[in-house]
Amino acid sequence: MDVLNLAHGSFYMVGAYIAYTVVVATNNFWLAIVVAPLL
After folding, report:
1. Which residues of 7-39 are buried (b: 16+ CB within 10 A; e: fewer)?
2. Predicted model pTM
3. How many CA atoms lie within 13 A of 9 on its CB side?
4. Least buried of 3, 17, 20, 24, by fewest C-beta within 10 Å?
5. Radius of gyration of the CA atoms of the chain, in A
6. What DSSP line would sit under 1-39, residue for residue?
């Protein structure tokens, strides 16, 4: 299994983008921590 798996990186990037968007829109870090994994 010498193949590098990059599939999970896209999930991390989508979650980070959602969290960043929520923080910018609401200025609430804790709300972003709760909302990002749910979407």
Report:
1. eeeeeeeeeeebbeebbeeeeeeeebeebbeee
2. 0.73
3. 3
4. 3
5. 13
6. ------HHHHHHHHHHHHHHHHHHHH--HHHHHHHHHH-
